Structures are given as C-alpha cells and as structure tokens.
Amino acid sequence: MSVLKKRMASLIAASGPISVADYMALCLFDPSDGYYTTREPFGAAGDFTTAPEISQMFGELVAVWLYAAWQAAGRPANATLAEIGPGRGTLMKDMLRVLRKLDPAFVANVALIETSPRLREVQKQTLAASGSRIDWHETISSLPDAPLFIVGNELFDAIPTRQFVRIGAEWRERAIGIDEAGEFVFVAGPATVEPALLPPDAAIAPEGSIFEFAPARTATMEAIAERIAASGGAGLFFDYGHLEPGIGDTLQALRKHRYEDVLATPGEADLTSHVDFAALGTAAKVHGLDANRATQGDFLLALGLLERAGKLGANADDAAREKIRSEVERLAGPDAMGTLFKVIAVARADTKLPFPTVS
Fold first, then answer.
1. SS3 for 203-226, per residue?
2. What would the mean pLDDT of 149-173 be, rounded to a whole number?
3. β-strands 233-242, 18-19: how paired?
4. Does any domain span residue 73?
5. Can you give the C-alpha Rg of the chain in angstroms?
6. Does residue 9 lie in a domain region?
7. How many domains does the chain contain in total?
8. What is the domain range of residue 285?
9. At 287, which CATH number?
10. Are 92 and 86 spatial neighbours (Cβ–Cβ below 8 Å)?
11. What would the mean pLDDT of 296-320 be, rounded to a whole number?
C-alpha cells in the first residue's frame, strides 16, 4: 500500500468517507505524495501523451489562432501571452517559435501558470532557448493587469469534480469509504445536489446513475473570463469532454497508457473526468464574454491542419510522410482525438475571432 493510500485510509477511518472531489485533489495535488507533485506523467515514458507531444503542428496552429485573436483585439502592445497548466512546456515552445516569426511584439510578455515546482524546472529546461523572458505564476490573479491571451490544453479534466449518484428520488454525493476488507469503495454520502443543476435527462436516469458537477472548473473559467472582460484578450482551451451536459460516470485513472481502477493506486495514476464544455461556456458568459465551442478535429482542420501537414511532408521521405499522416489522424481523426476532444474560445464581443462554432 502506498504512503498516500495509507494516509487516506487513516483519514477515512477517523473522519468518515471523503468526496470524489476531495479524493481527486489528494491523489493529484497532495504536496508530498500527489501525482503531479511526484511524477513525470507526459509522453511515451509517462502515463499519457498530449496533443503538443504528438505533433509540432498542434502548437503551430494554436499560435496562428492566438495571433489572429491578438490582431482582432487591436494588436495591444502590452499583452500577456499565457499558458495555464503547461505540462513540459512543449506547447509554449512550439507557439513561441511561430509567434516570433509572425510578430515578436506579441511575445514580449510571456507567463506560465504552474503550481508544481518540479514541473516548473522541466518547463525552464524546455524553454531555455526560446529567446523570450518568461515569468511563472501560481495563480491567474497574479498575472499582469493587461490584455490576456491565454491557452490551456488538458487543464480542466484534472480539476476535481464532484459526483452524485441517483438513489431513489434523490441524488446523493458519491464518496469513498473503506469496506470490511480494508479496501476503498464508493459509497453514498449525505450531501445532495440542487435539482436546478441537473441536466434535462436526469428525470429519466435509472437507479445508480452518476451526475458529475465541477464547480472548481467553472470557478477557474470565471477567473479567466473576469480578467479578459476587464482588460481584453482571448482564451482558448482544449480538453476531452462533451459539448452538452448529461448523465454518466466519466471518472477514470490512467497509468502507463492503460486504464485502471480509479481507487487502486491513489497518487500513482492520473485521475481525470470528462469536461462539461456547456458549463464552461456559461461561466464565461456570466462575465459578458462570447464563448464558442467545437470539436478539436473541426477546429484544427479549419485552421489548416491538412495544409500544414502537406507542407511539412512535401520534401520528406515515405517514412516521414507516414509519420505526419499518423499525427494528423491522431489529432483530428473522428476515431482518435478529433471528436473526443473539444475546444472552447472565449473573448469579448468586440473581439471577433475566427472559429468553426456549434454554439
């Protein structure tokens, strides 16, 4: 049994079951034994591979979009280019390479929002030759008071979600307790959810159905939206999830690129759940922003993914062209990330953004 699991077991034994949201927070962000504070999760040697690690084309196209957003906002000279949850720094590295060619003025102020000291060191190594001055921040609130152009990839899925299980006519908060054998198990806690928060199909959901509600995610989007509403800019965020709210258990654990029981190895596997993009859109609109959503595939193809792939492969050999083709399929194919992953763009109404929107 891991150190974190022993500590959590002691906590539950002393104080009772803990919510799914608290369990996720401890597993992922515990200061001494949490997943993101102790491990290198990214890439083939880690537990999962993100879009920037799959292909340079992802970061290049995101850079093109951010540059268009900056132009649409009037090319503000004091803008901050930021990434929240920057992983190893690969996305920012690819973006800076492109943006420096398009207009160095846009990358005068670069910021990374990262809470993990270990990941900060990795990011510093990745970006050492970027040619840009980069500042690191713990939170959005410490960013400069300036137009903000911010991107996040696979950020919201790791922010803890609450879960509620249908028991009779009630929706009770799902929690983690300990069974007679000393193993972690899901139990129903005493808390319930406001009926107004439930999606339309909740009324016909069968016994035992799960509803996920992530106020910490919407709070993060609101913090970003508040800054953009006050100072201008735009935000672009990618994650796997759904465009409309619904019923279903999407909590999952990933370790060494394989799914496993979410209760099996706390602190040793990545824990995530699907993101409700409708809820993120509502959070942005609360602050007066426009919020456009689409699938990742539609977004990247509209930005010129195929054209960029063709240019990269024009003078390549057969092996390199096949690699590029495979990257395109993984990023935008309907059976890969293209449909499962979604994207949301937020900006003030006076900043007209190019976007293949569905809402």
1. HHCCCCCEEEECHHHHHHHHHHHH
2. 96
3. unpaired
4. yes
5. 21
6. no
7. 1
8. 36-158+213-302+331-348
9. 3.40.50.150
10. yes
11. 93
Q: Which run of H or E residues covers position 11?
A: helix 3-15
> At 44, is the pLDDT very low, low, confident or very high (cuts 50, 70, 90)?
low
pLDDT tens-digit profile of 242-268? 998 899 999 999 888 789 999 999 999
- Domain for residue 325, yes or no? no
Query: Which of 68, 51, 43, 56 is closest to 297 using CA atoms?
Result: 51
Q: Name the 3-class secondary structure at 97.
A: helix
pLDDT 10s digits, 327-359? 999 999 999 999 999 999 999 999 988 776 544
The contacts of residue 226 (CB under 8 Å, 6+ apart) are 287
**Polymer length of the chain:** 359
Backbone angles phi, psi at 153, to 5 degrees: -120, 125
Distance CA 342, CA 115 (A): 25
Burial string for 9-28 (b: 16+ CB within 10 Å, else e) reads beebeeeebbbbbbbbbbbb
Nearest 5°: CA angle at 322, between 320 and 326? 115
**81 by DSSP, 3-state: which?**
strand
- 3-class SS letters over 30-63: CCCCCHHHHCCCECCCCCECCHHHHCHHHHHHHH
Which token pair is 16?
Answer: 């009772």
When the pLDDT of each residue in the chain is averaged and rounded to a whole number, the result is 93
Confidence at residue 359, expressed as pLDDT on a 0 to 100 scale? 42
The DSSP H or E segment spanning 306 is helix 305-313
Pull the structure tokens for residue 246: 């619904």
Average pLDDT over residues 6-23: 95
Q: Does residue 110 belong to any structural domain of this protein?
A: yes
**C-alpha angle 151/159/28, rounded to 5°?**
115
